[in-house]
Amino acid sequence: MLVAWKYRPRNTFIQRLDPRARLTFLACIILAVSGAQVWDFRLLLPLFILSLVLYLLARIEWRDVWRAWAFILFLVLFIVGINGLLAGRGGPTAVLQDQSAVLFRSPTLYIPLTPWSITITITVVRSFFAITQIVRMLTMAILAIPIPYTMDPSIYGVAFRRMGLPDKASFTMDLAFRFIPTLGRDFLITVDAQRARGYEVESARGGVINRLRRLAPLIVPVTMSAIVTGEEVIDALDLRAFGARPRTWYRQLHFQLRDYLFIALGVAVLATFIAIRIMGYGQFWVPEWWYNLAK
Amino acid sequence: MEKQMEQSGLWSFGTRQVVYGAIGAALYGVFSWITNVIPLPAAGNVTFRPAVAVLIFFGIAYGPWVGLIAGLVGNTLGDGLSGWGFFWNWSVGNGLMGMIPGLAMNMIRDYRSGRSIGIAIGWGALGIAIGMLFASLTEMFVGGIDLSTALVGYFTPAFIGNLVVTVILLPILMVAYAAVVSRRGR
Prior knowledge:
The structure holds 2 protein chains of 2 kinds. Chain A is mainly alpha-helical.
C-alpha cells in the first residue's frame, strides 16, 4: 500500500486550465451556492449541469473515483436529503413554515416501553426541498472531487503564491506536498519494523482505549523522526538565507485566454446570484405540477 | 527539563514555523488518510482519528501558526489523498483545532510534567471544541443542515472522538518529544 497522489496527467481541457483559474472558479461557485442563499431550483439546476459538464470534461476513470462518489452520495442522499425530506430543516422560511399538502404519511410507530411514537410525514414542499438541497450539495461536490485527481501536487505552492499568498505560506504548502511520500514511506517502514517485533497491527483485542494506546508504537516513531528531520531542513534553509528576500519559483504559471474566460464565468455566476438575492428573487420554488402529486 | 526550543514570540513566523507547519501538515495528511482507508476503533457513530493528537501536539510544541497550517493544509491533504475533494469549512475547523492549543505554547516548560500535560490537554480540548463547532455550524450554510443535526450529528461525535484520542495519545507524544529535545539539545 503506497501513499500516492490520485493525480495523473491527462490531456484534458480541465488540466490545461491554470490552477489559479480553477481555484478561483471553485471559490466563486461555493460562495454563490452556499453564501448567496439562493434556493430557486431553476437557478441551481443550470449550475449543477455546468458542474457536471466540467466533471465529465476532467475524464477521471470510474475505478479511481468510485470511493469518493460512494462517500459523497451517502452524505448527500442520506444525511442531507433525508434530513430535508423529513424535517425540512436547514432550509429557508418557506420550508420551515411548511403547510403544504401531504404526499405520504406512514402508520404511527409506537416505541415499546416509552410514551413516544413516530409518524413520518412527507409534504409537497419538503419533498421538493430535499431535491433542491441534493442538487445544491452535488453542484459543489462534483466541482471539488476532481481537484486531487486533476491538479498536479507540485503546483499548489506556486499557484497560491501567484494568488497573493505570502512566500513563506506558499512554500510551507509546497514543502508539505513534498513531505507526503517520505512520511508515508516512513510510516510503512515503521509498521513493518513493529510487525517484525511481534506487533499486531490488525489485532482487535482490548477496548477502544487500549486499541488507541496500541497505535502509539506506530505514530510516535514516525512523528519524532519527522521532527528530527525538520531540524535538518531548518538548518539547510537557514544556510541558504531562506526568507531574507523574496524567493523565485521554478514553475511558472501564465494565464491564457481560456483561464480569463473561466474566471469571468465564475465571477459572473457569483455576481448574478448575489444580485438576484439583493433584488429579492431566488426564493425557494416548487413547480406547479409538483403540487398536483398530492391530489 | 527546561524547554530549550527557540523562545521567539508566539506569533512569529520564521523558518522553524515554515518547516514544522509543512511537516505537521504532511503528518496530519498521512495519518488522516490512513484513518480514512483503514478502519480504526469506533464506538457508536464516534470515530477516532489518531492524527488529531499529532495536530494538537504540533500546535502545543511549535505555536499557533504551525497548528493552524498543520490543520488547515493537513486536512486538505488528507482529503486529497483519499480522493474526497475539498471541504473548506472542515479544513478551517481543523486549522482552528491546531491553532488554539498553540496559544499555550509558552505555558509548557517541561513536556514530562503532569502540569504541562494537563495544560496541553486542556487547551487541546478547547481547540477541539472550537474547531469542530466552527466546522459543524458552517455545515448549516454549506450542507443545509439544521442546528440540532449540526450539534448532535456532527459536533458531538467529532468532539468526543477527538478528545478521547487527545487524552490518550498527546501525553505519549509529549514525553517522547521531551526525550528527543533533551537528546538533541534544542
